[in-house]
Amino acid sequence: MSGGTSAAGRGHVPAGATGDERGGVPGRTSSGDGRAAMSGGESGAGRGDFPGRASSGDERAAMSGDGPGGMSGRAPAEGPGGAPGRAAGSGPGGVSGRAAGDGPGGVSGRTSSGGGPGRLPAEGASNGPGRAAGEGTGDVSGDASGDVVWQSSPPGSIYDYIKVASFSIGPDGLVDQWSLRAEQLFGISADRAVGMDPIEAFLAEDRRDVGQRKMAEVLDGREWTGVVPFRLPGSGGTGTRAEGLAEVYVMPTRTQEGERAAVCIVVDVRTLRSIETDLAASQAIFGQSPFGFLLIDPDLRIRRANQRFASIFGGTVDDHRGRTVKDYLPPGESERVTAILHRVMETGDSVTEMLVTGTVPGSAERRHWSINLYRVHGGSGRPIGIAWLGTDITARRAAAREAAQARRNLALLNEAGARIGNSLDLETTARELLDVAVPGFCDLASVDLYQGLLAGDETPPGLADGSAELRRVAYASAVSDAPFTGGRKPVRVGAVHHFAFNSACADALRTAKPQTVVPEEGGLIQSTLAVPMVAHDTVVGIVQFSRTKGSEPFGERDRALAVELAARAAVCMDNARLYRREHERALILQRSLLPPGDPEASGLDIACRYLPGNAATEVGGDWFDVIELPGHRTALVVGDVMGRGLRAAVAMGELRTAVRTLALLDLEPAEVLSALDEIAQGLGRPGGVQQATRGVRQSRDADLSEVYLATCVYAVYDSVTRRCTFANAGHLPPVLVEPGEGALMLDVPPGMPLGVGGEPFEEVEVELPEGALLALYTDGLVESRDHPLDEGLQAFVGALTDPSEPLEDVCDHVLSTLDTHHGEDDIALLMARVQGLPAESVGDWTLPREPRSVGRAREFARNQLVGWDLEPLVDTAELLVSELVTNALRYGEGEIRLRLLLDRTLVCEVWDAGLVQPRRRRARDTDEGGRGLQLVGLLSAAWGSRRTPRGKTVWFELPLPSAGKGLADPAAALLSLF
Asked: According to the model, what pLDDT value does residue 975 have?
């Protein structure tokens, strides 16, 4: 831009002036030989000064700096919406070169100070020949003179952000030209605006007087600049009105006729203030951000970096301009990040929480950053680069790793708590520990327990020096199946060994503290922890955790975790050891209280089975017994003490002993159960049966933990009559299988369990046919978690199909058919086949109450024994029969009955109707009588008396000569009495 201009007074546009009047960006004019140099920058006139105002003298206006659109060079200025004289330079549309200072639309920008021709029309007026700046497209370059149509092209300019409008006022004070930008700012079309009074149109009623005075001053030739509120588009005349704030620059002009007029340049002040605030905020955020902030241009080079980024990577902020990510990151990482930057620039998709790894100058430590990327756009919406926001998360990742390790350790402990100790078996518990530790905690592990503890010793020998014998009970490996070397040679599972006195493992056993085992050179192991297993202040063994080469060595947290794992397993193992010891002792006690071998009974074929629960369940209180009674009778007993363990086994032993004692008293089955009920009540009380009886009379709280309950079925079988009397105390009913018939459950009233008290027991007498099969059992045979009681009873009855088979085979068939391997409870099974005493083995006579009945009784006995080929027993039997019949005559009542029974022994019974039981006493030397029962006791194998429904029975028993037991000499027995 060149050419002379004459300086005019304020308020006049100098002739030949050029400049960008949009937004107050002036061109450079000079008078005389002055020249204007504009380099991509802008300079603003002072408040109230007309943009592009002429300067005098030879001074030069040098405007430099990057404009919003990257303006450089020289270009004529075209004001938006009709602002005349756009500054020379390379504008947003790529305009370059030199241009004369003509106004838009071919209207000359020259006016004379004296009001000569050359009126300056507003840009973009509806009736003007030119177009508003920014409306066209394309690039304008080269020198231009005359009329030029200025156009807006990328990358845009500051005028894309602010709102600038222009209009002109005629001599009559009314609007005569209205730009398109004015339409947008005020919301009034040109058709409506032309001819309007601007004061009436834009100002509120209370401000119009001042506006009219100012308008008059302008039309008198004075310039005016000020801030004026105006009504925003869409606001009505009533109600709440939305007002804007505009900075107005009014310049007096003259028309071609010489009349005074004015040109108005309007800028939205609030938009300017917003831009200022946003720029200040952006600068503050960019400069004060604690995170690394980069602005990357479309070529993926750093355009701007903040101080935080420069403090991390060194140098000043300007040192990083033009660099790429390849200057900061290793090759592989930089290529990955570059590809992501390309994608963000092309697609506009933002990236959040991108992990970038690298190093910083002066340090070899790997650093980690979290990067957020998003594309940045200019005011026209065109992408101008990428914003990079980086946060150093190295410490956060380290903390996250520690937290993750802590969570893994906690999860491992939770898993250990859930999986270790589910079994009361030592070996199983050791394997559970290794299942948790390998491979989650280590690569190899082994468990060694003291051999003495496994054998049942309380304190194993050599515990003090750590060199006692140990047995390896478990081993696990994630890398191989062969045990690793704990010493000089491998130790196999199940092998007994010991550690050297000066070894780390022996030291761990001595001190009860974990020790680190030095690995062998050239071996597979990198790190090994020897951790003692301590339970209740007792070392029960040692566990070794090993990690192979390539794994991370054990740290302090690993050591603490290993100690916790070993302690939990040690407690479970010690509990399993104690349980095993108690279980074995209870089992020994229980087996010692059961009948040894297969019991024998007169008139019965007996078979029995007893199956204890498995090792995981405590021993129960099931028992059975076969008791021989006088008169070739047999008592069959099956019972079950409720509960488990040693307590139940002891209670079972006490009840079994009580049953045998009561059975020998030859009481009726109901009386036996009643006495057992009182005994069971006394088992849980310190005072025994007497205290239990008082407890019934006295109301006091009972300790339920000491209540003993039991079920029992008691049956007495008479082999002579084949009749069986049953009494039941809450037990399962007996099962009878008759020849040729199906099995059936006998209808025996169940009664209350023993220990409840207060209820009588009923008896049921059943005649059993020859060859019939009788089965007594406990609930473990017919009930389990998988099979309810009814289903088990039906299966048991169905399994008893053929009573003629051998009893041992029948028992095996029942156990194999039913579910007897559940191990939830003990199983007791007692089976008896009826084999009544033959009639030829029974001698039965009735004698009157007279003295000669004694002789006849001897005669009957002699003849019967001779007929049975038992001559060696004749003399002894005659003597004892004579004594019993004589006592019946002297002390008894009613008829006398003599009965001889031959089975495995010879039994002689004398019946009478008297209720007084004979009592044996020792006669003095001077007594003439009283030695009869003593003589019976000396000559017989056993003797006694029992009550009967119609009196009593006194009996004695002699062994058969075939039994090999010699008989006592009657003469010697008689002499021994004196």
From this structure: 56
End-to-end Cα, the chain, rounded Å: 169
The β-bridge relationship of strands 29-30 and 54-55 is parallel
Helix pair angle (688-697, 669-683), 10° resolution: 90
Residues 460, 453: Cα–Cα separation, whole Å: 6
Please give the angle made by the CA atoms of 134, 137 and 138, to the nearest 5 degrees. Answer: 125
* 907 SS3 class: strand
Q: Tokens representing 348?
A: 């506009």
Please give the average pLDDT of every successive group of 10 residues along the chain, which has 978 residues. Answer: 35 35 36 34 35 35 34 35 36 35 34 35 36 36 40 54 85 90 85 87 79 84 83 58 79 88 89 80 78 91 90 89 92 93 93 92 88 87 90 88 84 86 85 90 91 69 67 87 54 88 89 88 85 88 90 88 91 83 74 73 88 64 88 91 78 88 89 91 62 46 62 93 93 91 90 88 92 91 82 88 84 85 79 90 92 92 92 90 90 90 91 85 63 83 87 90 64 58
pLDDT of 866: 93
- Tokens for 957? 């028993």
Residue 7: its pLDDT value, please? 33
* pLDDT score of 300: 93
The pair of structure tokens assigned to 743 is: 């099995």
Q: 506, 466 in Cβ contact below 8 A? A: yes
Nearest-angstrom CA–CA distance, 689 and 699: 16
**Distance in angstroms (rounded) separating the CA atoms of residues 221 and 254:** 9
In 3D space, the residue among 157, 7, 188, 9 whose CA is nearest the CA of residue 75 turns out to be 157
Helix axes 394-419, 426-437, angle to 10 degrees: 160
Q: How many CA atoms lie within 13 A of 480 on its CB side?
A: 9
Q: In the prediction, which pLDDT does 457 show?
A: 66
| Pairing state between β 735-737 and 743-745 | antiparallel
The backbone torsions φ and ψ at residue 743, rounded to the nearest 5 degrees and listed phi first, read -70, 145
**Which contiguous run of DSSP H or E holds residue 723?**
strand 723-729
Measured in degrees and rounded to the nearest 5, phi and psi for residue 303 equal -90, -35
Return the DSSP state at 706: G
**Buried b or exposed e, range 48-65, using 16+ CB within 10 angstroms:** eebbbbbbeeeeebebee
Distance CA 467, CA 164 (A): 98
Is the model's pTM score more than 0.70? no
Give backbone dihedrals phi and psi of 583, rounded to 5 degrees, phi first: -65, -45
- Residue 351's pLDDT is 94
Report the 10 Å Cβ neighbour count for 103.
31
Q: Which residue is associated with the tokens 């099979």?
A: 787
How would you class 5 by CB atoms within 10 Å of its CB: exposed for 0-12, middle for 13-18, buried for 19 or more? buried
Q: Return the amino acid letter for 753.
A: P
Q: Are 885 and 898 in contact (CB under 8 A)?
A: yes
Could you tell me the strand order of the sheet in which 367-377 lies?
302-305, 292-296, 383-392, 367-377, 351-358
Q: What is the dihedral of CA 242, 247, 251, 257, to 10 degrees?
A: -20
pLDDT at 6: 33
pLDDT, position 923: 63
Q: Are 72 and 89 in contact (CB under 8 A)?
A: yes
- Note the pLDDT of residue 445: 92
Cα–Cα distance between 28 and 58 in angstroms, integer? 12
Rg of the chain (C-alpha set): 61
- Identify the pLDDT of residue 701: 46
Contact 73, 93 (CB under 8 A): no
Secondary structure of residue 21 in the 3-state scheme:
coil
Q: What is the 3-state secondary structure (H, E, C) of 452-483?
A: HHHCCCCCCCCCCCCCCCEEEEEEEECCCCCC
Is 170 strand, coil or helix?
coil
Task: Give residue 224's pLDDT.
Answer: 85
